[in-house]
Specification:
This protein has 31 helices and 31 strands. With about 850 residues, it is α/β, with parallel strands linked by helices. The protein has an 8-stranded mixed beta barrel. Helix 2 runs parallel beside helix 3, helix 6 (about 125-155) packs antiparallel against helix 7 (about 160-165) and helix 17 (about 450-460) packs antiparallel against helix 18.
Length: about 850
Amino acid sequence: MSSPQTTTVFAIDDSPLNLKVLRRFIESLGWRVFTAEEGATAIQKIFQVQPDIIILDIMMPGMDGFEVCRRLKETPTTAKIPVIFLSALTDQESIVKGLELGAVDYIHKPFQQAEILTRLQLQLKLYQANQALTEKNQQLEEQIQKNERTQTALMQSEINFSVAFNQNPDPIFIYGRSSGCIMDVNQQFCDFFGLVKQELVGVIHQQFNFWVDEQQRQRFLRDLLLWQQDSEVKFNNWEVEVCDYQQQIRTMLLSGEPIEFNQVNCLLFVMRDITERRKAEKQLKILSQACEQSPASIVITDVEGNITYVNPKFEEVSGYSSEEVVGCNPRILKSGDKTKDDYELMWRTLASGRPWHGEFHNRRKNGELYWERASISPICNQQGIITHYVAVKEDITKEKQQAAALFHQAHYDHLTGLPNRILAKDCLQQAIESALRHKHLVGLMFLDLDNFKKVNDTLGHNAGDQLLVEVSERLQRALRQTDTVARLGGDEFLIIVDQVAHSRRLTAIAQRLLGVMRQPVNLQGMEFFVHGSIGITVFPDDGFQADTLLRNADTAMYAAKLAGRNMFRFFTPHMNQAAQKRIVMESELRQGLARQEFKIFYQPIVNLKSGEIAGAEALMRWQNGRLGAVPPDQFIPIAEELGLIVELGEWLLDNACRQVAHWHIPLGDKLFWLSVNVSPRQLKDGYFVSILREFLQRYQVRPEWLELEITENLILEENGDLLKNLSDLKEENISLSLDDFGTGYSSLNYLRKFDFSSLKIDRCFVELLPDDQNTVGLVRAIIAMAHHLELEVIAEGIETPAQWDFLRLEGCDYGQGYLFSPPIAVEEWEGLWQKQPFFP
């Protein structure tokens, strides 16, 4: 039978809540639980799972619980599994029907967890009780046989009759045929019923009040009368229930034999107490059924180890019939995997009287190997001598296979079959321990593919997967079998080079790896060149811990990418300092919004002709308690890489819309717009426009009050979500401004395609005005071109009156810069409104 750690319970109930409650408290015991919400599915699963016990609801849609039970009991593989009904039906007819169908118990809803637990545990204890009761029943049978032999000998000897009569351990009374009353009783009879002989002798049969059941009493009296008329009437082994002197109900075996007593024809009645025997037999029957129906294999051997009993589950699992194995030694199942020492340890444990727990790798009759988890216990007699051994075994072959599959899944990359990060760290740790023992170096290389994203974006993820498989195969071919190649995730690979004599060897290996990476890869009929950047770190020079070496190799790889990609770099302490600073900034940046460390500063946009404020640009600023004021050009790129820019951008849009709506309360119909920078990630987000619509509606912002600035390089990307978002913004009448114009590579077609309303001349041109003639010509051309395309022009970075004059005379529409005001907090804008109009 299963131990509590391996017990499997299958619960069937159309109420998910009931199943959840059952699963929670049963699994708290360490038991496994399977569930189903309807009968047909449950039956199929039960055939597969073969649970230890089934908890079954009755009222279910489709197939009810009675039908499920009937089908399970009709099927040989499930007929012996104990079924407990758990139902809200409380009528006697339903209970009887459930038990007649073969259920072992019936529990009413709502149920108590303790009640269910107790009844489940009872089923699991049946086997041990079965063994004890079998032994006890055997003892009772021996005692009964002994008593019967004694009584027969005594009754056959008239000389010893008196002694036998009075010393017999069973209650005896003598009934006279002619008198119709009790002629004599022995002392045991008196003691049993708590009476004295004088009160019993002479009592007529009508006064026999020992019986509990009146019908039994009447039948006995009737047969006594018949015997008085016909001495051939027999009283052989009647089972009757009587009350003893303690008013306890006892089951007695009543037998009557004709004798001649005091020269009178009589009946000598012997009453043998079989109460415990019947209880034992009842429990034995239940336990026997439990053993036969057990989902675990049960094997009993004698003290020599020869099999004396196997249950049906053993036959099913091993393929051997009971007839084939009884009398044999269990070694017929051996696969040869368990050593001689293992078996000797097992037998020493059992011989000492202690149970043994372990696993066997056995062989079925058809030659197939399988795994079993076994618990073997010695069985002792009353003298404490071992007479048998009982083994309860569970087939765990599937469990072993699943464990192996889970191990592979947990430690190997599903795409390339290479070790994953978990296994790679373990291999690295083993290499470090070996290097410490043998005094050699370990090289660790962190390889990241260059431009891998281009393959995914161009050909799709299937092509990207094909490329990763090809790269993994190339790396393995370029290395020794003793070296380890692992995939950490994405396009990142780790190479562990063991037993390195000198770091110069790592240089040669890195060059060889870069060489095989430079070879073209054929993907969907096209040749692609995907290079790699490698960071190298060495044990023990760069660290003693696996995590330290991994971190340093990653840092060196990042340095290789910054140096131009398609190359390798060895780790240096300087790299670590830069990496640590970046890690700190990443960590602080993740918590910045929650700490309310971000603020919005606003820089006015001035009409260059009138000198009045026409709008403002919303600029994000970050004041961190650990890093101080962090410039946007430092934290914005990191936020882009980490994906935090979307959250920051939404926060900026939300607050900007709220602020521009507030400013328009006193402005009325006067035009004033707020310009907000939008990151590339935001514009590629499928939810961007819907989120913006929500902000516009929430703060009642008109479309003309808002202008979105996007970078020039972004519009070169033919991204589906990007193009859709730009199209949707056009339908919403949201103005688009092209930022940093002239610094990228966009063509004029994009200016017309995306319907920009304005463009910004970058500050790198404005700062050279009006003295640099090349810049003067370029700016004039930009302004003329923009006006020709019906675009307004905004100049950034105006710091001198001369720059303002030049731009105003050339027809530039708007400008912003420190000449008018640096970016300021919203609280300072009240004073800024008072300073306009501005004058050169």
